[in-house]
Amino acid sequence: MRFDEGAGLDTSEVEDLRGGGGGIGGRVALGGGGLGVVGLVIYFLISQFGGVSLGPSAGGIGSLGGVGSGQQVDNTSLQQECKTGADANRKHDCAIVGIINSIQDYWGQEFQRSGSTYRKAVTKFFNGGVNTGCGSATSDVGPFYCPGDSNVYIDLGFFNELRTKFGAEGGPFAEAYVLAHEYGHHVQNLTGVSKKGTGSGPTSGSVRLELQADCYAGVWANHATTTPIETGRPLLTEVSQQDINSALDTASRIGDDYIQSKLGGGRVDESKFSHGTSAQRKKWFTTGFQTGQPARCDTFATNNLG
């Protein structure tokens, strides 16, 4: 994955909350008719054991501008360091900004083509815990989107946990898949689909919502190198087959069946499925990537989820 060296980056789409003192009282609202939090992975301890806390995510990858946990920060360093695609090609934090820009550029143009208006969502980075429009959350929830305030939240240590806990290959495009999935939830919120994401089980609304977000991530990946920005050229200039493979590898590590069997004691209980199986997550990302058509992502209109 590479960015256009001369393209500009928009750091206003990212907010760094780490060290900002946002406490951890209570729990995020899961479900609730579309008013709760929906994410890439609601950790198996959250979904199966009632929210037992593991403590803050492991640190490591993704500290923006060298800022560590517990320090008061703002976006000044991002604005100074992440100005162009060349910065995104050299610095991990700037690549995250570029990925978010690319995802929102695509959806903005897609909404415009359909006669609608896309409202941008800010991605907020945090350490340990954060207060949101859906309540307070710890890093154990994993990356999530909050319909209550229309923001994406992520502890960047999650990218490290994808490799160390889930055994994923990782890499920049695995991270792009994570973020594109969360913005898929933003699209669902804007279109009113989020309210359908209720219940649990292999054919539940929750599973269908998550698989659709995977499909939307694939749609963006299809268009990532052809979506123009203000310069008239795409922000992303290259997405390789290896990039797609890393996204599919990540999808295979975060299916309900994989998490339950590998991380939850070995027993698979379909009645508690909330995100879909590994095979389903790969299938729907692939559907989006191969077709490039959001309309092909209607997981609520099919009896064959894969």
Describe it.
This protein is α/β, with parallel strands linked by helices and 306 residues long. It has one domain. It contains 10 helices and 9 strands. The protein has helices at 44-49, 76-81, 85-90, 92-113, 157-164, 172-191, 205-223, 241-253, 256-263, 278-291; strands at residues 2-3, 14-16, 38-39, 122-125, 129-132, 135-138, 144-146, 151-154, 236-238. The strands form 3 sheets. Strands 2-4-8-7-3 form a 5-stranded mixed sheet, covered by helices on one side. It has a two-stranded antiparallel sheet with strand order 1-9. A two-stranded antiparallel sheet has the order 5-6. β5 and β6 (135-138) form a beta hairpin. The radius of gyration is 18 Å and the shape is globular. It starts with a strand and ends in a 15-residue tail after the last helix. Mean pLDDT is 83; it is low at 20-26, 30-36 and 43-73.
User: Which class do the helix and strand fractions yield?
Assistant: alpha/beta
The average pLDDT value, as a whole number, equals 83
The number of helical segments is 10
Head-to-tail CA distance between termini: 29 Å
Tell me, what's the shape?
Answer: globular
Order of helices and strands: EEEHHHHEEEEEHHHEHHH
Alpha-carbon Rg, integer: 18 Å
Q: How many strand elements?
A: 9
Helix content: 25-40%
Oligomer: single chain
Low-confidence stretches: 20-26, 30-36, 43-73
Tell me the strand order in the biggest sheet: 2-4-8-7-3
Major sheet summary line: 5 strands, mixed
Strand fraction equals 5-15%
Total count of domains: 1
